[in-house]
Amino acid sequence: MRRRTFMLAAGCAIAGIRDASAQSRPAREKLRRVGFLMPGALPKSIENSTLGEFARGMRELGYVEGRDYLIEWRFAEGKPERFSSAAAELVNLHVDVIVAATGQGIQAAQRATKTIPIVMVAIADPVAAGFVSSLSRPGGNVTGLSNQSADVVGKHPELLRAVAPGLSGVAVLLNPTGPSMPFLLKQIEASTSRMGLKLRRIEARNTAEIDAGFRALPRGSVGGIIVTADPLFSAHSGRIAELALKSRFPTIFWTREHVEAGGLMSYGQNNAEHYYRAANYVDRLFKGARPGDLPVELATRIELVLNRRTARALRLELPSDLIVRADRVID
Length: 331
Fold this sequence. Notes:
Order of helices and strands: HEHEHEHEEHHEHEHEHHEHEHEEHHE
CATH topology of the largest domain: Rossmann fold
Shape: elongated
Helix content: 40-55%
CATH superfamily of the largest domain: Response regulator
Oligomer: single chain
């Protein structure tokens, strides 16, 4: 009887010690969820793609994926109409933050929620698009990074003339439904007007219209094509480069990935930088910051990328001064 009493008392004492120990340890923070709303397709390796830069940024801030946070990936696969349902799925999952790329993606996220913080990436002018009130005081639930720069897209006609000195006109491939399109088109029109170049518009909302737009271009009407930033064109940059090469049109895109897919050149933001810096926003939001109080940051790294292989196929000689200026030359 005494032995049973002792064992019972010892068991209670041990349980009491365990309870006290549990109360003295700080409760582990909940596993956060970050929703990603992306325009393209799932890459073969996220870690080795530009998207992998987000996880690298988080690691440098002390976060381990799977231990401190999870990512819910949603890809529109070049079909902007998929953004709405994908954004609704993320909201229904009660993610803590949504990282959204391109105007259509950000627009869909903003329509889906007014409370979950949204971190923008790859957007030209978030103020003109109506996503934020101002760069310094965004207001609402949206903040993040902008590649806004009048000098960037305004230099595209100049760079085309540098590789094709005799051109008298250029075409601009655009998706009229894109929220950033008015801003981008305004900058291109101002530049071509200043240079005395004729500007022809190719409007495309789907792949069939991309093909039709190229077929409709009369021979000799333009000397190059400016491809504007859009998830549709990003997903089909290889096809666009192929059509341009077949028609013997030099092309300029907005990021290096499209030159790697066969475009002649790109001048614009470094996407990897944006995803890396997005981690800093997510960190501050995890710690209780309000998105409307976090200023929108502009791209700090603008790069020029050239494809010498495509230039040879077009029988173009890349100017030596352009090669010297380039951040990367693909052979």
